[in-house]
């Protein structure tokens, strides 16, 4: 009897347990058990897939970031390496001039000088790339094609660029950037050139324009810490430069306005070329990567057009006072290796270090006019701006770099005296927040 009783209890417990388990499962997961509609199943499946997709895209993003970082590190290594790059054959080297044109018939003025000073048309082919589809300008350029064997290419896409309202007024900058991308792709990919000098349709050039770029090319090619040679000095006004037409510098500030780059640089920046404001984009550390340009004391270009995309007011205030070099300097017969980073840094640092330091008031008083050069220190953005204003040089920054600065030092002439506007010793680099 006792045994039977026990068995009955066990059976009851077992049944109860089963019943409870069933009840719990069904009430907790009403969708998983019992009747679940096809629609619900689809929803669940969709959710799962969406989840998987977002997971995958995250993974992809991580991978992309990783690849970019790797490429970026590789690039940094390249820039800071010291091995010499592949030598090139100077006699067979071709340096095309790319002239960016649009709707100004005065492009003839630029072309006349480019042709007048060109020592060799095979070595320096001129390519005019025209945007805007302006017929009168096209006719002018066509004349040069017949008479001087230049190349005239036309940007195929002259459509307006759709922009939301606040950016509408920048249409011109967007078109310019689009045109640059196309034209540079033509130069490097269609025509397969290995370097280019870029000018715009409102530039005059100096008699030694070609000489300057020919002589600096080997330096640019040899020194991975350089990424451009420019014809421009942002503080190149008549009373702010010396008479020394031979004088060249390194500059952390990308000057533009008549500049040379190699194909390798285009392969690097071309694929991520921006939709607008390409020059400021190039000045950003993401592109510049600590690299410098060569620039002259006295400009090898000057602009005559005030009707540019950006140049109206700027022209009246600055550009029209720029001194264009008129002497021919035989640069190719000179040793320019002092512009290579190691040599230059040693020389330039010592030069600035050994220059007597004065206050801006002292410099302006003329009491030290017997000295060849003076140094004025700045530690803050406001200090820089106020000093620059007093002495009449450009006072703005791009990505934290003052115009023409090298290692923070800005060199210019003030009333016949060389001034170095310099950060104090122990300088830690540019502050991108200075603007
Ligand atoms: C022309 O440029 C616009 C804007 O940059 C672009 O959306 C469009 O696809 C281009 N058209 C062609 C044919 O390349
Ligand atoms: C482009 O030029 C390089 C040398 O600069 C040469 O090695 C290459 O074969 C050329 N490519 C084409 C398609 O002509």
Q: Distance N terminus to C terminus?
A: 99 Å
Strand content: 5-15%
Radius of gyration: 32 Å
Small-molecule binders: 2-acetamido-2-deoxy-beta-D-glucopyranose
Helix tally? 13
As residue ranges, the low-confidence spans are none
Structural class: alpha/beta
Describe this structure in words.
There is one protein chain. The chain is 42% helix and 15% strand. The chain starts with a helix and ends in a 13-residue tail after the last strand. It folds into three domains: 2-80; 97-339, Spore Coat Polysaccharide Biosynthesis Protein SpsA, Chain A, CATH 3.90.550.10; 355-422, 2,3-Dihydroxybiphenyl 1,2-Dioxygenase, domain 1 (Roll). The chain is of the alpha/beta class. The chain has helices at residues 2-28, 38-80, 107-116, 135-148, 171-190, 209-222, 263-269, 278-283, 285-288, 312-317, 341-353, 360-365, 381-391, and strands at residues 97-101, 126-130, 151-154, 195-200, 203-205, 226-230, 248-251, 259-262, 292-296, 301-303, 373-377, 397-398, 401-402, 410-414, 417-422. The model has no long low-confidence stretch (mean pLDDT 91). The structure holds 2-acetamido-2-deoxy-beta-D-glucopyranose (2 copies).
Write the layout of secondary structure elements.
Elements: H1 2-28, H2 38-80, E1 97-101, H3 107-116, E2 126-130, H4 135-148, E3 151-154, H5 171-190, E4 195-200, E5 203-205, H6 209-222, E6 226-230, E7 248-251, E8 259-262, H7 263-269, H8 278-283, H9 285-288, E9 292-296, E10 301-303, H10 312-317, H11 341-353, H12 360-365, E11 373-377, H13 381-391, E12 397-398, E13 401-402, E14 410-414, E15 417-422
Parallel strand pairs: 1-2, 1-4, 2-3, 6-9, 11-15
Antiparallel strand pairs: 4-8, 5-10, 6-8, 7-9, 12-13, 14-15
Bound molecules: 2-acetamido-2-deoxy-beta-D-glucopyranose (2 copies).
Residues 192, 194 line the site of one 2-acetamido-2-deoxy-beta-D-glucopyranose (NAG).
């Amino acid at each position: 009897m006792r045994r039977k009783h026990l068995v009955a209890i066990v059976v009851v417990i077992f049944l109860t347990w089963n019943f409870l388990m069933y009840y719990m499962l069904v009430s907790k997961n009403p969708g998983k058990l019992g009747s679940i509609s096809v629609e619900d199943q689809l929803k669940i499946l969709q959710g799962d897939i969406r989840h998987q997709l977002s997971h995958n895209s995250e993974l992809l993003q991580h991978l992309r970031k990783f690849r970019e970082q790797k490429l970026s590190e590789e690039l940094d290594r390249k820039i800071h390496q010291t091995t010499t790059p592949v030598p090139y054959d100077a006699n067979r080297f071709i340096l095309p001039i790319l002239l960016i044109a649009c709707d100004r018939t005065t492009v003839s003025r630029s072309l006349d000088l480019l042709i007048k000073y060109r020592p060799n048309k095979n070595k320096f082919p001129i390519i005019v790339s025209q945007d805007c589809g302006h017929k009168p300008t096209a006719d002018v350029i066509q004349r040069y094609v017949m008479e001087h064997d230049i190349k005239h290419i036309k940007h195929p896409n002259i459509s307006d660029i759709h922009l939301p309202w606040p950016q509408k007024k920048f249409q011109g900058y967007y078109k310019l950037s689009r045109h640059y991308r196309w034209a540079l792709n033509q130069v490097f990919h269609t025509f397969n050139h290995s370097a280019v000098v870029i000018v715009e349709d409102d530039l005059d050039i100096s008699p030694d324009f070609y000489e300057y770029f020919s002589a600096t090319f080997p330096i640019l090619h040899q020194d991975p810490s350089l990424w451009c040679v420019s014809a421009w000095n942002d503080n190149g006004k008549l009373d702010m430069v010396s008479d020394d037409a031979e004088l060249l510098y390194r500059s952390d500030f990308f000057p533009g306005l008549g500049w040379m780059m190699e194909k390798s640089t285009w392969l690097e920046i071309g694929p991520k070329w921006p939709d607008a404001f390409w020059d400021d984009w190039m000045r950003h550390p993401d592109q510049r990567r600590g690299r410098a340009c060569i620039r002259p004391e006295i400009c090898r270009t000057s602009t005559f057009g005030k009707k540019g995309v950006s140049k109206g007011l700027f022209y009246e205030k600055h550009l029209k006072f720029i001194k264009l070099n008129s002497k021919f300097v035989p640069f190719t017969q000179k040793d320019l290796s002092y512009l290579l980073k190691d040599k230059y840094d040693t020389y330039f640092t010592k030069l600035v270090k050994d220059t007597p330091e004065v206050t801006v008031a002292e410099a302006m008083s003329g009491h030290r006019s017997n000295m060849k050069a003076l140094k004025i220190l700045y530690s803050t953005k406001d200090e820089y701006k106020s000093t620059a204003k007093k002495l009449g040089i450009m006072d703005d920054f791009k990505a934290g770099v003052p115009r023409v600065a090298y290692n923070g030092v800005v060199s210019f002439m003030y009333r016949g005296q060389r001034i170095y506007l310099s950060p104090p010793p122990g300088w830690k680099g540019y502050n991108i927040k200075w603007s």
